[in-house]
């Protein structure tokens, strides 16, 4: 309701608005909102405490057992010819024995057999050489392969696949010659023959 009031100077009525009091908020709605907030907080706390409780109980996720372990070496700065000879020498043998043999190659005590017009070496019935740089790289690859075997739970591993391929070879300064680059792929699996013999 508005009341009209006349001023002495101007005969136009002025309307005065009565203040309307705000409606009181129901207490029931407030209580419901508080209960909903408490329920949401409980859900969040339960979600946070579940993983902690599982850790305390000692539940561990079972890692599926794999039948092989793999190592890839991309764009390695070694000769493809030497790496192919090392792959032929490594294939079908144990990782531990091959790391020991390659360490002997680095110290020039054991040659690696190679095909072609290459002179014969002491302790080797056929022609061979001492690829020191390539053998250093292969030692690192074999150590990572043995670590992958332990992670994948491959027992008594043997190198089944050893491949060396050409990688992208960048040009040297001048553009007439290229650098040596090689890709290496090694794969190890369980030695089932020895496991059967032990049984």
What does the secondary structure layout of this molecule look like, with pairings?
Layout: E1 2-6, E2 13-17, H1 27-57, E3 68-76, H2 80-90, H3 95-106, E4 112-113, E5 128-129, H4 132-151, E6 157-166, E7 182-190, H5 192-198
Antiparallel strand pairs: 1-2, 3-7, 4-5, 6-7
Describe the structure in brief:
With 199 residues, this protein is α+β, with helices and mostly antiparallel strands. The protein has helices at 27-57, 80-90, 95-106, 132-151, 192-198; strands spanning 2-6, 13-17, 68-76, 112-113, 128-129, 157-166, 182-190.
Can you describe what's shown?
- With 199 residues, the chain is α+β, with helices and mostly antiparallel strands.
- The chain has a domain of 131 residues: Alpha-Beta Complex (Ribosomal Protein L22, Chain A).
- The protein contains five helices and seven strands.
- A three-stranded antiparallel β-sheet has the order 3-7-6. Strands 1-2 form a two-stranded antiparallel sheet.
- A hairpin with a 6-residue loop joins strand 1 and strand 2.
- Helix 3 runs antiparallel to helix 4.
- The longest helix is centred in the N-terminal third of the chain and has 31 residues.
- The model has no long low-confidence stretch (mean pLDDT 81).
């Amino acid at each position: 309701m508005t009341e009209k009031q006349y001023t002495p100077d101007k005969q136009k009525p002025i309307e005065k608005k009565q203040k309307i009091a705000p409606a009181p908020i129901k207490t029931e709605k407030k209580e419901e909102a508080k209960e909903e907030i408490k329920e949401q907080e409980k859900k969040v706390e339960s979600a946070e405490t579940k993983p902690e409780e599982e850790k305390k109980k000692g539940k561990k996720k079972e890692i599926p057992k794999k039948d092989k372990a793999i190592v890839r070496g991309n764009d390695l700065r070694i000769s493809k010819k030497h790496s192919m000879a090392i792959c032929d020498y490594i294939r079908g043998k144990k990782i531990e024995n091959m790391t020991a043999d390659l360490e002997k190659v680095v110290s020039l005590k054991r040659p690696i057999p190679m095909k072609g017009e290459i002179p014969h070496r002491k302790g080797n019935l056929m022609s061979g050489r001492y690829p020191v740089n390539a053998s250093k790289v292969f030692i690192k690859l074999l150590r990572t392969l043995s670590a992958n075997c332990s992670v994948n739970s491959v027992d008594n591993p043997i190198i089944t696949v050893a491949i060396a391929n050409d990688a992208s070879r960048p040009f040297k300064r001048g553009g007439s010659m290229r650098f040596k680059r090689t890709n290496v792929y090694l794969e190890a699996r369980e030695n089932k023959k020895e496991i059967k013999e032990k049984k």
